[in-house]
Amino acid sequence: MSLVFTALPHGAAASSVKSALDAGKKVVDLSADFRHQDAEVYRAAYGIEHPFPELFASAVFGLTEHARDKISQANLVANPGCYPTSTLLPLIPLLKADVLDDIPIIVDSKSGTSGAGRSAKTELLYCEINESVKAYGLPRHRHSWEMEEWAAAFGGKSVRIRFVPHILPMTRGMLTTLHLSGKNTGTWYSLLAKAYENETFVRVLPAGTLPSTAAVLGSNRCDIGLAMLSDSEAVVVSCIDNLVKGAAGQALQNANIMFGFDETLGLSRHAVWP
Fold first, then answer.
1. Between vectors from CA 107 to CA 101 and to CA 111, what angle results, nearest 5°?
2. What are 232-268's pLDDT values in tens digits?
3. What is the pLDDT of residues 58-115, one digit of tens each?
4. Count of domains observed in the chain
5. Which residues are catalytic?
6. Is residue 193 part of a domain?
7. Contact predicate 49/25, CB 8 Å
8. Does residue 211 contact residue 173 with C-beta atoms inside 8 Å?
9. How far is residue 118's CA from residue 63's CA, in Å, rounded to a whole number?
10. What residues pair up with 109 in beta bridges, in sequence order?
11. 179, 235 contact by CB (below 8 A)
């Protein structure tokens, strides 16, 4: 059996995915077209009707570290967005442990300009973006629905997420800060460390150490750090390369699992273009 990667914009990918599946191909889709389980949620996030909502039931959300068994059996994997990947990896173990308060989770993310794709956009011209930082996607960025849906699915607890993304004048990289409150914050580091102790591509940094985008540049790794503020508050920071673990790298990781290959195949060298 052969494999197709689709990387078209949302709304344009669905037809290509359907054609590939009908032709007997396995598909890893890097668009947002199959990241949701419900047509109403997809419509709310993207403002359009989905042409093939019947495929939602067979699509697997490819957050690799939390979906391996399903990925290995899937014909269609929906590759997660970069912001949801950087948010969900540190969040899910804490949700599973039921240590977070039932209040909105504040997620503050910053991304390099490559996260917006290669299409020509005036606001991304060098003279527009250089020496500047700005928030965008408010009042509710479309990835918020994806975060909430899969936090509940993987973490077993419904959450409300207040997500604000920012764009930085750098080519690539993503840093996500989660402002969290709950109970037993002294145990949170061990919860994260245990959850990912055997994972090749998720690294929980030594206690008190926070990650940087430079450290994950070109890698398929997510670095996670935790700063405990009090017995009931903490900040968790994650960093990924938005073009690798946030996109093509995780897609390749998922494809390897779909075909029973070594999960790290093709991911041992750093990819740094652009």
1. 160
2. 999 999 999 999 999 999 999 999 999 999 999 999 8
3. 999 999 999 999 999 999 999 999 999 999 999 999 999 999 999 999 999 999 988 7
4. 2
5. 82
6. yes
7. no
8. no
9. 24
10. 165, 176
11. yes
